[in-house]
Amino acid sequence: MDNFAAIDFETANNQLSSVCSVGVVIYRNGERVDEFYSLIHPEPNYYLYRNIQVHGITERDTWNAPIFPKVWEQVAPKIEGLPLVAHNKRFDECCLKAVFKTYCMDYPDYIFYCTYLASLKLKGLENHQLQTVAAYFGYDLLTHHHALSDADACSWIAKKLL
User: How many CA atoms does the CB half-sphere of 64 hold within 13 Å?
Assistant: First the structure.
């Protein structure tokens, strides 16, 4: 796959619409051409302890962050015409659809590919988690659950598997 945008969301709580950060890594003609990261003021705006433990983002971090529609105004032109790739697309695609619905935005029916599902054909892995599959392909994911780092690792896997 030569043209795609790897995307990752982190959420504030167990509501899929509660995206609190997004990372995007963009490839065109096989070359990495752009990246984007932003904190997002989540909706609903509360944080569960477990989510904070996973990604380290707190209410204080996102209190003055832009809401999703403002962030997406910056992302949308960067990814226009590209398929999206996520590691466990089920989560990231559902987050994207949920937050579009929350803000009454028209969802553009993005095409999503999944590096997690693609990785299931790899044999001998301990598991198929992002950091495990990335390591298998020689990528050292140092800041797991940071949306841009996870999107970068996903893009690395996508280049190898998709």
Answer: 0
